[in-house]
Description:
By secondary structure, the protein is of the alpha+beta class. It contains four helices and five strands.
Amino acid sequence: MPTDAEDLRAIVRAWIEEGWRRGDPGVVDRLHAPDFTDHDPGGRTPDNAGFKEGIARLFAAFPDLAAEAQDLVVDTAAGTVAVRWSAAGTHLGAYLGAAPTGRTVRFKGIEIVRIRGGRITERWGEWDGIDLLAQLGRL
């Protein structure tokens, strides 16, 4: 397990860059442990396959999505990193029951990931779904 704060930050920065700026579901194979658990899977299976599905769905709806980490808070003893992030993208595919609107939407959230042996083993995440639904015209 990396105990150095910079090692933990580097893993999470790569996770954000590859998964949430480039939409590369291969980030799961590269950075997640085989027994990864997603504690907030949003209706998907709470494993690596479900996480890849979430990335694919998000980028199918927002192909130009770009997420950015505003803050990274590291707890080296626990091997966890909290990330406060924001994202923007153009709504070009169906998402959360909303037909494509062509609108640029912005949303934000917080992720907490646990890292063991250089791999992400667990994830907890919360994002402002109500605000996103409002921007998509669903509220």
